[in-house]
Amino acid sequence: MSTIPGVQRIHDNSIHSTYIRTMNNILFNNLPLLVLNQVVSVLYLVTTALYGAHFYKDIQFAKTYKQPILALTVLTHVVYLGLLTSMEGYKISYSTVNLMTMVALTLTITYMFIEFTTKSDKTGFFVIAFAAGAELISSIMTAQIPNTGIGTFSGIGMGVHLIASIFGFSAIAIAGLYSILYLLLFRQIQKNRFELLFQRLPNLEVLEKLTMHAVSFGFLFLSITLFAGVMEQQASGETISLFEPKLVTLIIIWVLYGTSIVIKPIIGWDIKHMAYLFIVLFVFITLLIVLMTFFSPTFHKLTL
Is 195 helix (H, G, I), strand (E, B) or coil? Predict the structure, then answer.
C-alpha cells in the first residue's frame, strides 16, 4: 500500500521530534537519575500505603515501618533533587513541574516535623497521599519535557521567592486538608456517630490548632514570596504585569489568609466557618497548579 508523501513526511517529522525530545531529556541521558526518579515515586506510594493501612486497619506491620520508610522517602527525594541540580546545564526551574516535586517534598518534611514533635501520626495518610499525587505528576511530566533550561532563575532574591512560594503552597495544602478532616470529624460528633475518624483522628481542638498554625505559616511565606519577588524585579529590571492572573490570585489568597488570622480573635468567627474558605482555596490552588503543569511551562511570564 502506497503512502501519501505529505502524510509520510508529517509522520517522519513527528517521530523525529519525539526522538529529539527524548534525547534532550535529562532523565534519559542519565540512568542513575532515571532510576532515582522512579524510586522516589514508588517510595511515596509505599509510604502512603503504610500510613493508610495503619489508619484504616491498624496493622502493626504498617505502624512499625511507616516512619522509617517516611524518612527514607524524604532522604531519597533530597538525593534525587541534589543529583538533578548537580547536572551541568540544569537548574530547578521556575516551572510548575519542578514546583510540584518541591511541594511534595516540603509537604512531607513539614508533616514529618509535625509527627516527630507532636507524636501524633493520625493525619499522615491524608497529607502524604496528596504529596504522592504531586510527585507522581511531576515525575511523569519531567520524563516528557526536554531540558531546555526554560524558566531557570538566578539571584538570591529569586531563590528566596521560589522557596517561599513552595512553602506557602504547602501550607495552603495542609490547611485545606486539616480543614476537611475537621469538618468530617465535626459532622460525626454532631450526629453522634463515633466511627473511624472519631477513633483515629486528633480531637477538634488539636485539628483547629494545626489548621491555624498552617494558615499562619502560609501567610508568612506568601508575604515573603511577594516581598522577595518585588525586590528581585527591581534589582533585575524584569517586569511582571500587575494584572497577570497568577499574580492576582496570589495576592487574593494572601489577603484572605491574613484576614482570617485577624477575624478569628476579633469577631470570634470559629474555625468551622473558616474551614470552608480554606478548603476552597486549597482546591482552587491545586487545580491551578495541575492545569499549569500541563498547559503552562512556567509560573510567571517575565519580560525585559
Answer: coil
Last residue of a domain, one of 147, 166, 185: 147
Cell numbers 527524548 label which residue?
22
Q: Is 143 found in the same domain as 14? A: yes
The residue among 72, 77, 65, 70 whose CA lies nearest residue 38 is 77
CA distances to 20, 39, 59, 64, 169 from 15, rounded to whole Å, are 9, 29, 49, 49, 38
Range of the domain at 265: 153-304
Residue of 124, 132, 103, 126 whose CA lies nearest to 41: 132
- Over the stretch 129-162, which tens digit does the pLDDT of each residue have? 999 998 998 888 776 765 544 445 555 666 677 7
The amino acid occupying position 48 is: T
Residue 71: half-sphere exposure toward Cβ, Cα within 13 Å: 6
SS3 239: strand
168 in helix, strand or coil? helix
C-alpha cell at 26: 535529562
- Written as one string, the DSSP assignment of 252-266 is HHHHHHHHHHHHHHH
The number of beta carbons lying within 10 Å of the beta carbon of residue 144 is 11
Cα separation, 259 vs 241, whole angstroms: 25
For residue range 239-295, list pLDDT tens digits in order: 666 666 667 777 888 888 888 777 766 666 677 778 888 888 888 877 876 676 556
Q: Identify whether residues 140 and 219 lie together within a single domain.
A: no
Considering its fold, how many domains does the chain have in total? 2
- Both 208 and 124 in one domain: the answer is no
User: 205 with 243, same domain?
Assistant: yes
- Percent helix, percent strand, percent coil in the chain, to nearest 5: 80, 0, 20
Predicted TM-score (pTM) of this structure: 0.74
C-alpha cell at 12: 517522519
126 and 191 together in one domain: no
pLDDT tens per residue across span 82-103: 887 665 444 555 566 677 888 8
